[in-house]
Amino acid sequence: MTYEVKLPSLGQDAADTATISYWLVEEGDKVKEGEDLVEMTTDKAAFIVPSPKGGVLIEKLVQEGDEISVGDVVCVLEV
Questions:
Q1: Partner of 36 at 20 to 30 A CA spacing, among 6, 15, 20, 26?
Q2: Along the 79 residues of the chain, how does pLDDT read in single tens digits?
Q3: Distance CA 64, CA 53 (A)
């Protein structure tokens, strides 16, 4: 079964977009729930998006430097 990881809400005072800084895992890597997936930045801060589920990262849908919006799918896990 696959699971789409989406950019979570960034909070009330934050922008609705973020830029992918760098990936912390590669396609084919196993990740545990809560393990760091990707670092993102906004105009105010940098933050890490943790994996919401354990599984294998099967596809990155955004690349480093891409700007994405809250709710956009970042990657797909096989869970």
A1: 15
A2: 999 999 988 777 777 899 999 999 999 999 999 999 999 999 888 999 999 999 999 999 999 999 999 999 999 999 9
A3: 22
Which segments of the chain are extended strands (E)?
A: 2-6, 17-23, 30-31, 36-41, 46-50, 55-60, 67-69, 73-78
Q: How many CB atoms lie under 10 A from the CB of residue 58?
A: 15
Unique residue bearing structure tokens 């009330």: 12
Using CA atoms, how far apart are residues 9 and 54, in angstroms rounded to an integer?
Answer: 21
